[in-house]
Design brief:
Blueprint (H helix, E strand, L loop, with lengths): L4 H6 L11 E4 L4 E3 H17 L7 E5 L4 H12 L3 E4 L6 H10 L4 E4 L12 E4 H4 L19 E6 L9 E5 H14 L7 E3 L7 H13 L2 E3 L6 H10 L4 E5 H10 L11 E5 L5 H6 L3 E7 L4 E5 L6 H4 L4 E2 L4 E4 L4 E5 L6 E2 L3 H7 E2 L2 E10 L5 E6 L4 E3 L2 E3 L1 H9 L4 E11 L3 E10 L7 H5 L10 E5 L12 H7 L1
Parallel strand pairs: 1-10, 3-4, 3-5, 5-6, 9-10, 9-11, 11-12, 12-13, 25-26
Antiparallel strand pairs: 1-2, 7-8, 8-18, 13-14, 14-15, 16-17, 17-20, 19-20, 20-21, 22-23, 24-25
Helix pairs in contact: 2-3, 6-7, 8-9
């Protein structure tokens, strides 16, 4: 069936792009907005066949793909609540999240569907494609800003993950706020360089669909494949963590990133000054699951000093530093609360402000400097030591590929910093001598060299795993 303009638009409120414009491109297929609308309608019918209706929670446990996007959009169209599940979790971790979210239905990638899961029904993607199509009509309340749209589990670095409840209004406000700083429209292509079960990856889908832009799916998250996608798929935007962008830049050697690349949004932690100098498109950001991804962003064209911060708050978001140094956010992107956890919700949300748990400061221009996660702060001999400061200093050394700093127990000082360092080349540089003129003595870390730094699925360093090595 050839999609007409009306049919192409009707599935995606706010998107008035031509139904023949490209919505998704992967290495195996290209999908127009008209075709995407038809596939989402059919998927809505399959969900209805499975009993999905208003408020039904649907687990989606699969790798990034066109089908993932189709199913996620169809859950919203059917009035359900999407619960993306991390494909890297162990069976016990998945079971805990499935039970916590009371999932009666989980749709899983074929390789994952063979694992035992405590869901009421587990449907593989192979089975999904054979299901009959029921009622394809959109749920009348699907775009109610107050309705629960997704539950995303936090990374759980300090205990059990918490399920952040994001409303449809949160998702729309986040996409619009980002678009106000990084205008997006038909012809723009955002590289899906983060997993969709992560809030940053899911945010790419929402902002592209709202703006009529294209989601580009790489065949993997390796630096080589991301670089190939940037070159061959005419990418204009991407979202990465510092380490990933550094690997892409290094893989390119002396070649600059293409001029058509408008922005490389860097989240998940501080951005090294060397990377900012090497990549003029790099724009640091700050956000978290509870704020529906980005809350701050460095503006394109900012001066060098501003680029070394996490930028100013996005339009519509209020930002302040509490009396205890904790970063606090307020605005339409802030979550409704935590799933079945009123105590944690009351702790995080106070008088409309989200207490992030991260420590930061604001400069005279209103730009945010993130000092540390509160739980990562190291107190050595009564002095506050911020891991990010030491990590920045270490990454300035030409032989250091990456570094993560954690606090470890010490009989004399209570706690001292430990730097776990990944080198670019063989050999053992004298990093202590390199750091001495750059850091106060109480900040100088113990140093341990590793072949690879453990990471979470979203690309952030796994600080718990690093500490467990000690």
């Amino acid at each position: 069936m050839t999609p007409d303009r009306k049919r192409g638009q009707s599935h995606f409120p706010g998107n008035d792009s031509d139904p023949f414009s490209t919505a998704i491109v992967s290495w195996s297929e290209t999908v127009t907005y008209g075709a995407l609308g038809e596939r989402v309608a059919a998927a809505t019918g399959r969900l209805r066949h499975l009993g999905v209706g208003e408020g039904t929670r649907v687990g989606l446990w699969a790798e990034n793909s066109v089908e993932w996007i189709v199913i996620a959009l169809s859950v919203a169209r059917a009035g359900g609540v999407l619960v993306p599940l991390n494909t890297r979790l162990a069976d016990a971790e998945i079971d805990w999240q499935v039970e916590r979210a009371s999932l009666g239905l989980v749709i899983a990638g074929d390789a994952l569907a063979v694992r035992p899961v405590a869901a009421g029904r587990l449907v593989s993607l192979a089975e999904w494609r054979t299901l009959p199509v029921g009622d394809t009509a959109a749920h009348p309340g699907r775009d109610d800003p107050a309705r629960d749209a997704a539950i995303l589990f936090t990374s759980g670095t300090t205990g059990r993950p918490k399920g952040a409840i994001l409303t449809r209004g949160n998702q729309a406000a986040s996409a619009l706020a980002t678009g106000a700083v990084l205008p997006l429209g038909p012809g723009d292509r955002w590289l899906a360089s983060l997993p969709f079960f992560h809030v940053g990856g899911l945010g790419i889908v929402h902002r592209c669909v709202l703006a009529g832009a294209c989601v580009v799916l790489p065949s993997s998250f390796s630096a080589e494949e991301l670089d190939r996608s940037i070159e061959e798929q005419a990418v204009t935007h991407l979202s990465v963590v510092d380490a990933t962008l550094r690997r892409v830049v290094e893989a390119r050697g002396a070649r600059d990133l293409p001029g058509r690349l408008k922005a490389a949004v860097v989240g998940g932690g501080p951005v090294s000054p060397a990377l900012l100098d090497a990549c003029p498109q790099a724009l640091a950001s700050y956000g978290l699951t509870e704020s529906c991804a980005m809350a701050t962003l460095v503006r394109p064209g900012s001066a060098r000093e501003q680029r070394r911060t996490a930028g100013r708050a996005l339009p519509g978001i209020d930002l302040r530093i509490g009396g205890d140094g904790v970063i606090e956010l307020r605005g339409p992107t802030v979550m409704r609360g935590y799933l079945d956890d009123p105590e944690a919700t009351a702790t995080a949300l106070r008088d409309g402000w989200l207490r992030t748990g991260d420590l930061g400061e604001l400069d005279a221009d209103g730009c945010l400097r993130v000092l540390s996660r509160r739980d990562d702060l190291i107190i050595s001999g009564g002095e506050n030591v911020y891991p990010a400061e030491i990590e920045h200093a270490l990454r300035d050394h030409p032989d250091v590929a990456d570094a993560v700093v954690v606090g470890v127990a010490d009989g004399k000082w209570g706690e001292v910093p430990l730097a776990v360092v990944q080198l670019r080349n063989p050999g053992v540089p004298d990093l202590r001598a390199f750091l001495e003129p750059r850091l106060a003595r109480y900040k100088l870390p113990r140093i341990e060299f590793v072949t690879e730094i453990p990471r979470l699925a979203n690309g952030k360093p796994d600080r718990v795993a690093v500490k467990n090595r000690v």
